[in-house]
Amino acid sequence: MTDPITWADARETAWAAGYAAKPAPAELPFAEAAGSALAAPLTAVSDLPAFPTSAVDGWAVAGTGPWRIGGEVLAGHVPEPLASGAAVKIATGAQVPEGTDGLIRLEHSTVEDGYVSGPTDREWREAGEEARHGEELMPAGTPVTPPVIGLAAAAGHLTLPAHGRPRARVVVFGDELLTSGVSGKGRIRDALGPMVPHLLVGADVQASIGPVADTLEAHVAALREALADADVVCTTGGTMVGPVDHLHAALAEIGAEYVLNTVAVRPGFPMLLARTADGKFIAGLPGNPQSAVIAVVTVVAPLLAGLRGLPLPPLRTVELAEDVPGRGSFTHLALVDPAGRRLAHHGSAMLRGLAGAAGFAVIPPDDAAAAGTVVDLATVPGVSS
């Protein structure tokens, strides 16, 4: 074991390793680009809107009224120019006819003997009102969110320049684990195998492997199998140096080098991140469930963000409703609910508290936090609060 690095440094280190290894950008369909970052600025392929567009259902009129009714304009059609004194019914989103001086809202109009009257206004969007052809809409590095995808589609794009999803795979270590039934007779039900894949937000998650037998040979074989078709492999358990902890020896066997090895955080201390000679990553998560989640928050989420060209995942804040103790020279990640109250069942082997948590209140090393203090909040990927 090496001296652990700080929790803050671990996040930065994992993110920087991912960002340096991010794949070359490609033009990706929207579904594949979602959750990545723009690798180049997003520009408008045409004026936006491309033509004057009615903002209301009503009447397009020219000249002075009352106006003689002569047809209608629907969305998707190119209208004839409008002569003075004429009116056409127009739908929201339809192209405003050339020569139009104003629009009358349908609900404000009066129709009598083939004529329409009512108050007029310029209730349409001018061509290029939102953007001009070639104008930059979003800079490179912008996260590809659903609104960004909508903007790209409206601006004429079918793809986006972005970094593809890394392929990820989970390897579960442990002879003692059951994949069905209930715990008993010295064996326990595996919680990490079903949970961890859903924490790997932004990755293309492949089928999990395991439980893997507690032998060095089985660990090496499982790692090689996972690395054959994954860019990021998350292992569970075996991160210490006990009699059945073979991960460190297996990493040496396959020639992987540590990016970081142990983090000064409680819970979650014995986590690691390693890299193979061909640039793939192995994140070693502790076997205790809550510690494993903290390892995902600390190492895996920043790594995946970097691999997609995204910034380091931001921390939120929470005002504590009660005192939270420190953990000496280690960062303390304390489970709290949305109101800043500490949760029961917060031991590193427990998930009951985590299931109702807003996230982890971050208590810095050599410190404690009193009720009323506003502290950083580390949230769990895939969990909204």
Automatic annotation (TrEMBL):
Instruction: Cite the CDD domains for this sequence.
Output: MoeA
Question: SUPFAM superfamilies, alphabetically?
Answer: MoeA N-terminal region -like (SSF63882), Molybdenum cofactor biosynthesis proteins (SSF53218)
Please write the reaction equations for the catalytic activity of this protein: adenylyl-molybdopterin + molybdate = Mo-molybdopterin + AMP + H(+)
State whether keyword Transferase applies.
yes
GO cellular component terms attached to this protein's record: cytosol
Q: What class of enzyme is it?
A: transferase
Pathway participation: Cofactor biosynthesis; molybdopterin biosynthesis
Q: Which GO terms describe its biological process?
A: Mo-molybdopterin cofactor biosynthetic process
Limits of the MoaB/Mog domain: 169-306
Which Pfam family, giving just one, matches this sequence? MoCF_biosynth
Q: What is its EC number?
A: 2.10.1.1
Q: Does the keyword Metal-binding apply?
A: yes
Q: What are the recorded GO MF terms, alphabetically?
A: metal ion binding; molybdopterin molybdotransferase activity
Q: Print the keywords alphabetically.
A: Magnesium, Metal-binding, Molybdenum, Molybdenum cofactor biosynthesis, Transferase
Cofactor(s) required for function per UniProt: Mg(2+)
Q: Which family does it belong to?
A: Belongs to the MoeA family.
| Biological role stated in the UniProt entry | Catalyzes the insertion of molybdate into adenylated molybdopterin with the concomitant release of AMP.
UniProt name for this protein: Molybdopterin molybdenumtransferase
Please give the organism.
Glycomyces artemisiae
